[in-house]
Amino acid sequence: MANAPADGYTVLFANSGHAILGAINKNLTFDPIGDFAGVFLAGEAPGIVVVPPSLGVSNLKEFVELAKSKPGTINYGSAGIGTSTHLAGAYFALKTGIEIVHVPYTVSAAIIADLLGGRIQASFVPLAFVLPLLQDGRLRALAVAAETPVTNSISIPTAQSQGFDYQYGTWYGMLAAGKTPKPVLTTLTQAMAEASKDPELIAKIRVQGIEPRDIGLDRFDAHVRAEMARLDPVLKTVAEKR
């Protein structure tokens, strides 16, 4: 994609993991941010702090207190090193001052199995990944890492409402080659913006635990750079451990 003609006919639908690539992989032959131009950020999926009921905590404060009382004993699962679910947990640990152990998985379903089996004690995942298990009580959601609580299908309070400055989400959007002419980018952005108004599409996005957004062109680029700056301390730590 980085080497594709900058004519707008080849685009990439990516998520936050794309921007993170350059921070944790020093041998890339392209710049995940500089070699691409933001077209349209279509949605964001905030992370959910999830634990098994057997952990014995019912809110975020109790979870943090438990982690502080037993540093290094709470394990959290992710989809792998450098993934969004890895960084969501690492960023939570940084913001709350706790020490939790990262357990990377290669098969996402194994995270659920080990949460239910008590082999790991937490995960930081998008809502769609765990919604049925939250609804039937097999897992417990302590907080959503967003500005607004979850109220559709299930109620989940924000981390901020519980006294913790923790916001983290995975964005999804369209990127073009970095040197694509501005008029071409504008045409693509306008088309995406118009499509994003479709009520049926909005409903399908929200079912996946993704909140629709409408951020185009330079604002999209600025959003990505701001997120990278905010996560920089965590990204540096992850890169050092690779």
Q: What characterizes the major β-sheet?
A: 8 strands, mixed
Q: What's the total number of strands?
A: 8
Low-confidence stretches: none
CATH topology descriptor of the domain at 45-162 = D-Maltodextrin-Binding Protein, domain 2
Going by CATH, the architecture of the domain at 45-162 would be 3-Layer(aba) Sandwich
Globally, the shape reads globular
N-to-C span: 25 Å
Structural class: alpha+beta
For the record, what is the CATH homologous superfamily label of the domain at 45-162? Periplasmic binding protein-like II
What is the residue-averaged pLDDT?
93
Question: Order of helices and strands, N to C?
Answer: EHEHEHEHEHEEHHEH
* Rg estimate, integer Å: 19 Å
* Relative helix content: 40-55%
So what's the CATH class of the domain at 45-162?
Answer: Alpha Beta
Question: In what range is the share of β-strand residues?
Answer: 15-25%
- Number of H/I helices: 8
